[in-house]
Amino acid sequence: MSFSERDLAYLAGFFDGEGSISFGFGASTKKGITYWYPHIQLSICNTDKECMELLQKKYALGNIYTSANNHPRQGRHPEEWHDLTTWRINSKDEIDKFLHLIEPYVLLKTKYLILCRKALEILSMEPSANRDVSFRQIVDSAKKLKTKANRGRKRKYCRPDRFQ
User: Fold this and answer.
1) pLDDT (tens digit, 0 to 9) for every residue of the chain, 164 residues total?
2) Collapsed DSSP state (helix, strand, coil) of residue 24
3) Global confidence as pTM
4) Is-contact 45 18, C-beta < 8 A?
5) Cβ neighbours of residue 21 under 8 Å, at least 6 residues apart?
6) Angle between the 5-18 and 92-102 helix axes, to the nearest 10 degrees?
7) Which helix (H) or strand (E) element contains residue 20?
8) How far is CA 92 from CA 67, 119, 162, in A?
9) Which domain, by its residues, includes 116?
10) Domain holding 131: CATH number?
C-alpha cells in the first residue's frame, strides 16, 4: 500500500512529538531458567484513542493499548484528565517498515532512528554473547542521548537542512 507524502510527514511529526524508541532486555523463564533477550519497542502515546486507532489501522502496524488511570488523580483539574492510549510496535519487521516510512520526514529523533537501525542489524544476527554485547552498547548510547536531551537546554533540530 502506498501513502501520500503528506500522510507520512504527519506520521513522522506525530512520532517526533509524541513517540519514543525503547531499547532493553526482557526476561522469560522456562523450566526454572531465566533467559534474557534484547528487544526494541516503538511507541506513541496520546489521549485521543480514536486518532491512535485510526493511525494503527491505516498503517497496519503494532497494537493499541489503553491504560485507565485508576489511581486518585492529583494536580490541577484532575476531572479533565483522559486515559492514555499507546500505539506499540514490537516486531522487528514492523519496526523496520515503520522506520522506512518516516525516516525522510523525522526532524528531532534522527539520532534515535540511526540507533534503531543499528539495533535491528544486531538483532538480525544469530544469538550470541557478541550480539548481546553489541546490543548493550546500543542501550548505553540511547541512555546517553536521553541524558543529553534532558539537560534543560533548548532543543536543536537534528536536521536543519529540512527547513531550507
Assistant:
1) 689 999 999 999 999 999 999 998 888 888 888 888 889 999 999 989 999 999 999 999 999 999 866 566 666 666 667 788 999 999 999 999 999 999 999 999 999 999 999 999 998 988 888 888 888 899 888 888 876 655 555 555 554 454 44
2) strand
3) 0.80
4) yes
5) 40, 41, 42, 109, 112, 113, 115, 116, 142
6) 110
7) strand 19-30
8) 24, 10, 28
9) 5-69+90-148
10) 3.10.28.10
Cα separation, 89 vs 95, whole angstroms: 6
Whole-number Å distance between alpha carbons of 101 and 129 = 32
Phi and psi for 85 in degrees, rounded to 5? -110, 135
* Residue 49 falls inside a structural domain: yes
**Cβ-based neighbours of 153, under 8 Å, separated by 6 or more:** none
126, three cell numbers: 544469530
Tell me whether residue 80 is in a domain: no
